[in-house]
Amino acid sequence: IGWTWLVGAKADGYNIGGVDLPHIVLQPMLRPEGQPGYKTEQLNPLCCLVFDPDILIVSEKSPFKSFGELIEYAKANPGKVKAATVGKLTGDHIFLMNVEKFTGAQFTQVPYPGGSKAAPALLGGEVDCYFASTSNFLRMQGARGLAIATKDRYELCPDVPTMNELGYKLESAKYRGLATPPNFPAEAQAYLEAALAKVCADPEYQAGVRGAGLLPYYRDGKAFGEIIEQEKEKARKTLKEQGLIQ
User: In this structure, are residues 129 and 70 in contact, taking their beta carbons and an 8 Å threshold?
Assistant: First the structure.
């Protein structure tokens, strides 16, 4: 709703909205033909602010002590392992589908309306694992990370092994930033990019972002646009493989 409003808002230099990848590419791809709403390309990228990789986690009480143990059980017992996500066809679900593709395991997805519901479900034993954003994991107590979808060890939780080192070349993450209506004035774009770059370089700001479980990741509008295109192609490939789009 907010992103549809944003693309129709006045491009006066003052209307700005927060955006979240991969959701701004997933929603238009999956929307039924003719249904109104925004298109990804209508959102003018202003800047990327944070990087938040995907991670597979279990409760500390879980019998699964490693990624390998969980995957082997899920392969031997298709559908028996219940996996939380923050909703069908979200970034969490894309991550789950890719883990299934790379490993041959089969999970039963249990979608929740957000991390505030999925996390208690994991800790309370409603589900066996949670395909999550790392920021959610870092704000939790009582959870154990089994594998993170980054190429190299992630500085905010360096003890969690990467998918890459476990033998699966899978990188999956959310990016969050700012966008504006289309036809945004170039002068306003340049001014805001410079001001936001200064804010994002401030040590106090960076400490606050890390304290929220996120990695500061400022990129200007051009670079953020390239990330959006990259994520669009990755999402399209996964959705096609799953038979969800043509």
Answer: yes
